[in-house]
Each structure stands twice: as structure tokens, then as C-alpha cells.
Amino acid sequence: MHVNSLTNIGLVRKANEDKYLADKNRGLFIVADGMGGHEAGEIASNLAIKTLDSYLTNEVIVNEKGKSLWKAIRKANELIYQKAKLNNNCTGMGTTITAALFLDNILYIAHIGDSRAYLIRDNSIILLTKDHSLVGELLRQGELTESEASRHPHRNILTRALGTEPEVEIDLSEIDTKPGDLLLLCTDGLYNLVKDEEILQEVLNNGNDLKISVNKLVKTALDRGGMDNITVVLVSYDG
Predict the structure, then answer these.
(1) What is the pTM of this model?
(2) CA pair distance 216, 211, nearest whole angstrom
(3) What confidence tens digit (pLDDT) does each residue in 66-109 have?
(4) Per DSSP, what are the bridge partners of residue 162?
(5) Which one, of 142, 130, 137, 171, lies nearest residue 154 by Cα?
């Protein structure tokens, strides 16, 4: 397994509210995009990553498999929600979370919000997550086109986030992996400016050089305005 990752503040934001974890020893990869003002957003995403990092020990992962992601995210939700209640500066804060775990030839995905996980296999790109956002709902209902969604003034409004409610619904999925699979996790700072097919072509064009792919994807988003923080984690699964 090989991994390369990069986060960038972008060209507009005053702080980077994105956080990520890339740990190939545990097969654990996470992205989180905080919200609620730059200080509160950073607190939420950082707390989410730290909670999952500390909970998901090798022993827990082996014993609980995909359920370990679910338990860790529930714990993170509780901590973020309580911190927001106790600190006026953090009222309403929350974060997206997209966590991926490779274990025994299975890829487990747990997800809340509009950060994304993609599988690149056999020269195709497959979106593994569903955006929990107003625009995502409108897209699924056929009320918006992809082009309209990318320009929609309310595209940043989430319908589900980590830490904003005492209980949270977590999307869980399992995928049988194949050698040669590529997993890409990213925040909306990438995919709002770089289309899925462009992501695919960039990765395919650079073969096995994950670093070049990641750097070029971030550069493309910056060249197109860099309106948000941009985070990309790219993993090559060797079986």
C-alpha cells in the first residue's frame, strides 16, 4: 500500500479548516472539513481526527472491523457536540468526516457530510459516498444538473454533519478490493473545481506516481480560483 496526501489553504480562506489522517500501517485514511467559523471549524475537524486516531488502535480495528469506524465517529460526534455546548465561541460548529479502512481485502467507508471517497479501478472513477448537502439532495431528485450544482449559491449548506446534533446518522459501506485499486479522499475544495473525469485522467496520466497526481490535482483547483481549502489523500492498494 502506498499513499500521498496534501492539504492547502486555498486562495480565499484565512485559515485551513481541513484536517486529514493517512496511516498506511493501520490502513486508515480520513478527511474532515470543519465549519462554524475558522476557529470553531478547525477545532471541530481537529477533534474529529484526533478522536478517530486515538480510538482506532490496531487491536480495535482487528476486533471490530468496519464497526470500529462507526463507534469512533459516534464518539467524535459526542465530543464535538459537548464542546460546542460548553463554549460560546464554538456554537454550531461541526465537520464533515469521510473515513476509510482497508482490512482483510475489504475497504470499509464511513461518511457524514460532503467530503468524498472515490474508487479508481479499471480506468473508471466511482463515487463511493453520497453528499449530505442541499445541492446533493436536489441533484439526486433530478432538480439540478451537475453544472448547475457546481455553481449553486447554497452548495455549501450541509443536511448532515458531525457534531451538530447529539445523535448522528452515519453512512457505512463495504467494497471488496482488488490489487491496483486507487482510493481518493477529498474535500469539496477539490471536486467543486475539478470534475470527476478530470480527476480520473490526472491520476491515470501519472501512473504510479501518487505525489505528482496529488500535487497536480491541488494545483488545478488553485488555478481555478482556490475558493476553499483543498485536501486530497490518494491511496494505492496492492493487495
Answers:
(1) 0.94
(2) 8
(3) 999 999 999 999 999 999 998 888 888 999 999 999 999 999 99
(4) 95
(5) 137
